[in-house]
Amino acid sequence: MRDLSRCVHHPAVSQEGFASLAVPTCRASTIVFPDAEAYANRKYRGPDGYSYGLHGTPTTRTLEAQLSALHGAERTVLLPSGQAAITVVLLSVLLPGDRVLIPDTAYPPVRGFCQNYLRPRGIDFAAYDPMIGAGIARLMTPRTKLVWLESPGSTTMEVQDFRAIATAAHAGGALVGCDNTWATPLLFKPLDHGADFAMEALTKYVGGHSDLLLGSVSVRDLGLRQTLKDTMRMLGIGISPDEAALALRGLETMGVRLAHVGRVALDFARRLEAFPAARRVLHPALPACPGHAVWSRDFKGASGVFSVVLPPEVEPVLGPALSAMRLFAIGASWGGTRSLVAPMTVAADRSAVPWTEAGTILRLSIGLEDPDELWDDLATLFEALGAALPG
Ligand SMILES: *Cc1c(COP(=O)(O)O)cnc(C)c1O
């Protein structure tokens, strides 16, 4: 072989005895075959065979298998973001004329996708009261092919009666999908409660360091997996092994991170209830949270995200008070090592159950900083807000 050829041929080295604890990052577009016959027969390599980098590498397959094990799933597919994971489920199930039901409290871009992408293409949707339970049966029509859940609900934290909704949805001939990002499979396993699709934004707790975007969908039915893979293949969607490697690393510490932020967040939620500027604290472990009893029945614990409804009177001082926070950063997304606060309004995204609170909602994501120092930051904020209240 001459030098120019040597430049592009990587010599094979022994992998024997290389027992690293880290999963190797395998990059590929092209996959080569040992002979012409193997290439001609590549489509018979089966759903787990390697054919093209877009459709899977040992790195992405490792992450898929690990998530499947955690969810009690047969297979998992990986998507470039949590939002992509949701839209690919919807696109793989729904045909023109069909209808999907989404909770009023769904992650807002889901409603946007239904309204601005699906509806113009002849696929209808309706938003339902997240607390509807078995009453979802009243909304089922012969064209309802998918019922989506997100529990607890985005920002306002309503916990859904999963079993009741899934049973009624299946009785009506629909599939059931769930956004399980808040709980992760460590705190709730949707497939054990009747879901056909368990979706996660790995961007949040699995990644855990605010440096990657990924989504996953786990299923027990191999036919559903095939439909998801076919949809992804046609759309040309796959993920980078570098993101998968970061997610595999994040997953290793997720259990201890989640236990810590869950404990600190609940402690803060309880303490905030005493502050006049915390009009309502929305945390599933607090008895006043809608669906608290269902949460106690179905979930193993709480993660580190909860919300506080503010009285409208604090509005004039809210901006400066938030900007003065020392440890909490202001930003969306969550589930990383840094504590975040995001001022939210939800009324415009609610159609089934109008949101009647006039004040801003602060969504808090607790991170890994020193808890006492974090609490000082939070207490200072709520004291400053309280000073703006009349009396
Ligand atoms: C962040 C988030 C998503 C979307 O995830 P991306 O990876 O940011 O697209 C979906 N659902 C929930 C509940 C989320 O918090």
UniProtKB/TrEMBL annotation:
Catalytic reactions on record: L,L-cystathionine + H2O = L-homocysteine + pyruvate + NH4(+); an S-substituted L-cysteine + H2O = a thiol + pyruvate + NH4(+)
GO terms in the biological process aspect are: L-cysteine catabolic process to pyruvate; transsulfuration
Per the database entry, which stretches of residues form a coiled coil?
none
Q: Which UniProt keywords apply?
A: Aminotransferase, Lyase, Pyridoxal phosphate, Transferase
Per the record, residues carrying N6-(pyridoxal phosphate)lysine are K204
Enumerate the PROSITE patterns for this protein.
Answer: CYS_MET_METAB_PP
Which superkingdom is the protein from? Bacteria
Query: Which is an annotated GO molecular function term of this record?
Result: transaminase activity
Q: In which pathway does it act?
A: Amino-acid biosynthesis; L-methionine biosynthesis via de novo pathway; L-homocysteine from L-cystathionine: step 1/1
The record's listing under Pfam families reads: Cys_Met_Meta_PP (PF01053)
Which cofactors is this protein said to need?
pyridoxal 5'-phosphate
So what family is this one in? Belongs to the trans-sulfuration enzymes family.
Classification via PANTHER family:
CYSTATHIONINE BETA-LYASE-RELATED
Q: What is this protein called?
A: Aminotransferase class I/II-fold pyridoxal phosphate-dependent enzyme
